[in-house]
Amino acid sequence: MIEPLEEGQDFLYGRNPVLEALRTGREMNKLFIQEGQQKGPLAVIHAMAKEAGVQTQIVPRSKLHGLTGSDNHQGVVAAVAAYEYAELDDIFALAEKKDETPLMILLDELEDPHNLGSILRTADAVGAHGVIIPKRRSVGLTQVVAKASTGAIEHIPVVRVTNLTRTMEDLKKKGIWFVGTDARESDDYRTLDGTMPLGIVIGSEGKGMSRLVREKCDFLVHLPMAGHVTSLNASVAASLLLYEVYRTRKPYSR
């Protein structure tokens, strides 16, 4: 039976997510470590929590299952403040701080938390400045997303907006160009100019981009398929596009 959460609290689990939360100084109310592992694989986490003054409790494995409803906790669970969403200005502030051209990802009604977690992971890997999701019909920042992101959720601003198309209009006024994926009437993704201020738009797992979002895109690209499948997973498509931008912005040199 999953134990109830206090208001404004969430349970974060898994070694990498908890480790990144400690490294970034995220507010942590209590740490639960599986008995027998506090001096083993979880020794670093245990030591960091102690140094940060986080109350730590050694508990049986069944307790961790009760907190998370999962056996995939890797022996550690943290009671943390629920994730807070960023603002659009935070994305531009991060790009300015890094002295880089803005790069953001817009997710049109993505519903799978594992896809969102994977996209956050790639976004962090390529140095993107933020992810934008709609409030309705879209997965939010949950413990499953955090686990799938392997800690990247602590580093990438995620903005939640009421209307994605209106947000795109506002961002265009700030110089952002939008690239969407569409198999019809589109260019090969390798023709993309990644040096521009960009918003990469990824559609939902089943339907792809909505018509209104598609119409707001400045460019449409597709991923060539030489095999038998007709489409790729949303997070895989996002990864390919993001690394194409990375390749053009930071070309390889010997």
Could you write a compact summary of the structure shown?
The chain is an alpha/beta fold. The protein is 34% helix and 21% strand. The chain is built from nine helices and eleven strands.
Describe it for me?
It is a single chain. The chain is an alpha/beta fold and 254 residues long. Helix content is 34%, strand content 21%. It contains nine helices and eleven strands. A seven-stranded parallel sheet has the order 7-6-5-10-8-11-9, sandwiched between helices. It has a four-stranded mixed sheet with strand order 1-4-2-3. It is elongated and about 60 Å long. The N and C termini lie far apart (56 Å). Keywords: Methyltransferase, Transferase. InterPro entries: Alpha/beta_knot_MTases (IPR029028), Ribosomal_eL30-like_sf (IPR029064), rRNA_MeTrfase_TrmH (IPR004441), SpoU_MeTrfase (IPR001537), SpoU_subst-bd (IPR013123), tRNA_m1G_MTases_N (IPR029026). Residues 11-86 form the RNA 2-O ribose methyltransferase substrate binding domain.
Task: Give me the secondary-structure topology.
Elements: E1 9-13, H1 15-23, E2 28-34, H2 43-51, E3 55-59, H3 61-68, E4 76-81, H4 88-97, E5 103-107, H5 113-126, E6 130-134, H6 143-148, E7 158-161, H7 164-172, E8 177-181, E9 187-188, E10 198-202, H8 211-216, E11 219-222, H9 234-249
Parallel strand pairs: 2-3, 5-6, 5-10, 6-7, 8-10, 8-11, 9-11
Antiparallel strand pairs: 1-4, 2-4
Helix pairs in contact: 1-2, 5-9
Average pLDDT, all residues: 88
How many separate helices? Answer: 9
- Count of distinct strands: 11
Largest sheet composition: 7 strands, parallel
Query: Residue ranges: pLDDT <50 for 5 or more in a row?
Result: 1-7
Question: Share of helix among residues?
Answer: 25-40%
If strands are numbered along the chain, what order do they take across the biggest sheet? 7-6-5-10-8-11-9
Which structural class is indicated by helix and strand composition? alpha/beta
Radius of gyration: 20 Å
The shape is: elongated
User: In oligomeric terms, what are we looking at?
Assistant: single chain
- Proportion of beta-strand residues: 15-25%
Q: What is the first-to-last residue Cα distance?
A: 56 Å
Order of helices and strands: EHEHEHEHEHEHEHEEEHEH
Domain RNA 2-O ribose methyltransferase substrate binding: 11-86
Pfam family, one: SpoU_sub_bind
Family: Belongs to the class IV-like SAM-binding methyltransferase superfamily. RNA methyltransferase TrmH family.
Protein name: 23S rRNA (Guanosine(2251)-2'-O)-methyltransferase RlmB
